[in-house]
Amino acid sequence: MNDQRPLVILIFIFLVGAVLLTKLFTIQVLDDSFMKKAERNAIQRVVDHPYRGLVYDRNGKLLVYNNPIFDLMIVPKEFEVRDTTRFLELFKISKETLIESYTAARKYSWVKPSTFIKQISTEDFARIQDFLIDYPGLFIMTRSIRSYPSPIASHAMGYIGEISGRQLERDSSHYYVQGDYVGLSGLENYYEKDLRGTKGVKYKMVNVRGIDKGPFKDGEYDTASVAGNNITSTIDMELQKYGEFLMQGKTGSVVAIEPKTGEILAMISAPFYDPNSLTGAEFSKNYRVLNSDISKPLFNRPIMATYPPGSIFKIVQSLIGLQDGILLPSTTFACNKSLVACHNHPSPVDLFGAIRNSCNPYYHQAFRQIINREVSSNTFTDTKIGLTDWREKVAKFGLGSTLGIDMRGEKGGSIPSGAYYDKVYGEGRWKYSTIYSLSIGQGEMQVTPLQMANLAAIFANKGYYYTPHLVKSINGDKSLIPQEYLVKNEVGIDAKHFDLIQEAMAAALYGTANRAVMKDLVIAGKTGTAQNPHGEDHSVFIAFAPKDDPKIAIAVYVENAGWGGRAAASTASLMIEKYIQGEVKRLDLQDYVLAGNFIY
Amino acid sequence: MRGEADININRVDWATVIIYFSLVMVGWFNIYAAVYDGQAEKSIFDFAINSGKQLVWIGTAIGIIIVIMAADHRLFENLAIPIYLIFIVLLLLTPFLGKEVNGQVLSIGFGSVRIQAGEFAKFATALALAKVMERPTFDLSKSNYQLQAFGVLLLPVALIILQPDTGTAMVYFSLLLMFYREGLPQHYFILGFGMIALTLLALGIDNNIYLVIGISIITIILIFLGKRTPQRIIAFSLIGIGLIVYTYSLDFVISKLPEHQQNRIMVLFDPNIDPLGVGWNVTQSKIAIGSGGLAGKGYLQGTQTKFDFVPEQHTDFIFCTLGEEFGWLGSLVVISLFVGLLYRLVIMAERQKNRFSRIYGYSVISILLFHFMINIAMTIGLFPVVGIPLPFFSYGGSSLWSFTMLLFIFIKMDSSRALQLGRLG
Description:
The structure holds two protein chains of two kinds.
Chain A (H helix, E strand, L loop, with lengths): L3 H27 L2 H10 E6 L6 E2 L5 E13 L9 H8 L3 H14 L5 E7 L1 H8 L8 E10 L6 H4 L2 E3 L2 H6 L10 E3 L2 H5 L1 H5 L3 E7 L5 E4 L15 E3 L3 H11 L4 E7 L4 E8 L12 H10 L8 H4 L8 H12 L26 H7 L2 H12 L7 H17 L22 H8 L6 H4 L13 H13 L2 E3 L4 E4 L13 E3 L5 H17 L11 E7 L7 E8 L6 E7 L8 H15 L5 H9 L5
Parallel strand pairs in A: 2-10
Antiparallel strand pairs in A: 1-8, 2-3, 3-4, 3-5, 6-7, 8-9, 10-14, 11-12, 11-18, 13-15, 16-17, 17-18
Chain B lengths: L13 H22 L14 H21 L4 H23 L1 E3 L2 E7 L2 E4 H17 L9 H20 L3 H7 L3 H6 L4 H19 L4 H17 L4 H27 L2 H11 L8 H13 L27 H33 L4 H25 L17 H19 L10
Antiparallel strand pairs in B: 1-2, 2-3
């Protein structure tokens, strides 16, 4: 009677097998979403952060390095202490701190590590290292922060910090992630791609509690991180240090350039800050303090501050006049104080005398000839044509636009154009008498200390310059630096015209800057005074030395220090002595600069 | 006369034995894979880990096999009722002598030697049912005999539910398949499956009104199809109304269940109800199996089972390890082994000369089929999570021993079928 029932049972058994296999086929073979979910479950992508490149000075001395800092980590599940007193002594913490930190760690996770004591010093680390084995559940995690053996050149080196949301958006290569550190200023910023290296990725397997279970597929897909390139800066550490020593307590800039290469030997922005304050855990706190300081220590004056060039610009005027044939060495003008004020000196003067005595009326008259060449009978039009022509020549000296230093935030200053005066006075309503103050570097003209140092280099080189830059080589390879720094820029003035200029600059020291004179080293220099409507004038001096084989060109700005022949010329002279002779013997001059009483 | 004739090697069904050992070995390798830790590599034989322990259970299971094969073939028939009674007593004692784990008292014993009476009571119940039902006059189409059979079946079920171990209790209902073979009228099954279908529909469909309309239409059609006697019309109408009441009461009953059981049922319809809670098991289990692909990730290469994403991975969810590391092809092999074993057992059961052996054989088939079907179905989300092991595969001594005894008692019966008296009813 039940003959068909065994068959029904058999069919049912096969049916069960078929249903299970069909369902398994759908989830295992047809649907691949489970594979992705499994990966998300168990495979964790861990970024292996590369070692950031180091920065050396031009002589191979370390300027920026990575300093390991140690965090003591705790895994509450494994943590065990038998002798609490000894433990507290060893780690130099109070019982309350222990309980507090432990509770916080427990709250975070029972099995995952969290920070127990932050940033243990290297000394403490050395002390506790050997005892760690007695305390299961504690281990050291090493991180690194930027450190500076000497707290100098903070503006040039720059600092690194956590990447901002805006920077992340702009990062089209998607290299960075939230929390990454990037160079925010100075070399750290400009050479970020060289310094940062390449991140590595490790795929590790984790279990359901997130605990590391070793590399995925024995590290088949892992990539190792590549350390960043080391950079050799053009900075001379000793010179930089000495410059900061001289500039302490002052506001201003010092830029020293090696004329033949455009390499910046020293770049000082005073007041400065300790670069070590913008690293590690204290970054944001210290940054806030520095950022709100009214003396603006974060402001990078050598490339961001602009001043009228003052008398120093007379050299540029002389060179343009010589090149155009408007001035000859023998051209004389009377020191006519009714045109523009001047100090007492013999009159009339030739070009040499004009530079040496910084004669204002001479340049008032010479500049008129440069501008008004009677190409148009309309004096207004003639002035505009002359100004435009002249402005092009000035631009060749690297003025009026950024030079292109390897730093972000460089200002270009300004050399006024015809369009500018049209806007201010109306078209056809201005002529030479409107713009004559340009003749002596005053008026609507603005230059940066960097551009001034570059001018000194041009005078030293007799007509060319290399764009000033801060990097000498990358990973020891000179050819890796940006190519534009290897291009010679001609300023369009024949070399022969510089001989007289150099002689006049050397002689000028005896008149306007006696303090800068050195017995055994010929310095060519020119004082300037940048008029300051808000207070005492700024003391300015540019120089190069030795005159016949220039090794250093320098521009010094000391704000509110009055006449250029005192503060700036003295500082520049000491810097030259330091760089050329290795040590400073004129201690009285050094004391004079350090004392800082330049107004008398 | 006994003894030498009883151990007849040639009459042992070797195909079944080979399938048994294949499953046990594959299971053992999978248990090792489930506990394998690449960072702290231990030998598969290491007694500190589950695979080492399972090896002990396998060894002792072989001992059990030898004892069973060497025993008198009438032993189990003669002792069926006493064995059954002993286990009933053990089940009664379990709540008092046992050790509480997760609110359940499942095992009794001393120290590390513990047995789960519920597991072993399966073969005892099968033997008792065979003994009760083998009588020539026994007829499952008659209600007094039905009562006897259900009585023997429900006594251990009631005791196990008290422990409480609903999963194991459910297994006993698989013996209805044996009842079916032995002539329990079809309408019981039609009603049973109908109820199950109705239950699933009631739970799966939000608005019960569709079910009420459906039940009404079917009832009316059934009334008009047969003789329209008042008696029949009333009977059908009452059944229809009863079903509608059942539909509506279901939500109420479910809400009265303990929360973990409620969730287990509801998760079947929507695993996302509680992805980190009850849904976790099913979701993670499906991820583990689903990530295996066609050929799997390779032995010991699984990440999901190895890193504890799947709970109970070496016991109830052992199939995940297989699915992840050997893929669909591995699943095919193991499911084929189980289907092959069950097929073999049906053939064997049908060739028995007496009713006792056949009933016992079908009990074995019923229990193994239920475990196999429900265990794998739950790992792939076709059935609510029920804590029952995969026969011969899952880690655990009680489970392996009880399935081994269950199976080999039948193999023993089959091997000595020539000695049996033809007593087919």
